[in-house]
């Protein structure tokens, strides 16, 4: 029989509601797992033991009295440190915000709590979420459970490691430049980047009487909240309870979670050419395996070249560069960041600027042109099977290497395009190569997360489970 901490979110919820295990037993099992594993990986930054046990006891009382409970009743989740969780600091991984305690939950966190989920810990991230390795001066570095000498990814690296090692059933992070999908690839878990407008971005003010906090346009357009899990079924379960509360977000779209049927067999573009660096052999093999598994499941997979990838990457970079900060109310990065982050940015900034390409007269106009090209391409096949990054998890410290940083923007071009166009994407593991997990992403039309999840489940059903894993 599986240990409690090894069970999926769906199985935990089922057993809790069947009363074969109590919510307290589930939370206690995950707290023991955190105590055992977290000192080796440093993924969970704040353990919410007292609050989680109180919530578990309340859930057990409700079940005992026959009071209806939510479908995630008793399921332990972690929350990234740039997501508001009432009573806990939203640090963004920087020292000056270590005491920035949130007065209320972010809308999707409140919704998940209402469904019965129990926050059990906060999770680590790079400073500002602006690095693809999880490290900061406030919390230190998070280690990949597959190999301590390799990155766990970023910026939702803490959640990916927490879920991969069984410290939580679900992780709640966000993705503005692959920040859910890249850690999922590095750690061998699944992740969902929803469509733009699905999950509310705008939360309540920080405190009573405070004005709403400004959100830079770049992040309104490019970044979304989403779940990390060990199974695609669990992604679907979490996602179902993240989308209803608009939270005052003007981008929010109350679209049905399931769209109209797509004629069978469903067609899939296999995008093996990211129009940049050659694919690492392990990544190329992961794509080939995923394509074969989709074909075996009845999908029709055809190799194709994604349109306008180079320009999509450039427009993405221009938008985030110009509109990624609220300069009037935020201090210079150099005044609040660690020496490590300043060193990283000094190395990366010239490559970031070069990745912007020729300045657009109107980047949103060009974005619309690219979006129409993708709509036309995806009218022939609604799903795209693509790499997340052209290489697997890099060695710790490699993101300070000038040569690697020069290639980095092009290596994530496919992931950035999904962010630019507001498209949903699901990261799903495919196996292991040279001791490191490999994964791919399924990209779909806007608001068709259901199609992406269906295809990811077909791949997962034909792939041996990689996690949970005990750190090596």
TrEMBL record:
GO molecular function: catalytic activity
Residue stretches making up the Amidase domain: 25-453
Source taxon at top rank: Bacteria
Any Pfam family: Amidase
Coiled-coil region list: none
Gene3D superfamilies cross-referenced by the UniProt entry: Amidase signature (AS) domain
Family note: Belongs to the amidase family.
NCBIfam families cross-referenced by the UniProt entry: PRK07487.1
Protein name per the record: Amidase
Organism this protein belongs to: Sinosporangium album
Biological classification of the source: Bacteria, Bacillati, Actinomycetota, Actinomycetes, Streptosporangiales
